[in-house]
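Technical note accompanying the year-one report. For the benefit of new consortium partners, we illustrate the data format agreed upon in the data management plan: each record pairs a sequence with a structure-token string. No post-processing was applied to the example shown here.
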Amino acid sequence: QVQLVQSGGGLVQPGGSLRLSCAASGRIFGINGMGWYRQAPGKQRELVATITSGGRTNYADSVKGRFTISRDNAKNTVYLQMNSLLPEDTAVYYCNADLRVGPSQILNAWGQGTQVTVSS
């Protein structure tokens, strides 16, 4: 079964740091774009950051300079390093990836979500 499995997250004080990880498992031939999204209570899911297979990154304005997305292609894993966290970063974070599951077959998959709470 092909899936994305997230780890990391939790409770942190304002100004603190957390790192999220998301690993693809199952029979895949590779991964195209990967990204992180978040959804706060009562709000729509929003883009946080994306990274292409070549390493090109894109960030939401609200996290630029504080968050860093990276990937390890050998481990089929994407990371989100979050520094200088703010209370408004509190949300459930989801990873997303375009998984190559066949010669010309792409599966868009979501991780299970992980709670990040920034509070004193």
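Partners are asked to follow this layout when depositing records. The chain has a mean pLDDT of 97.
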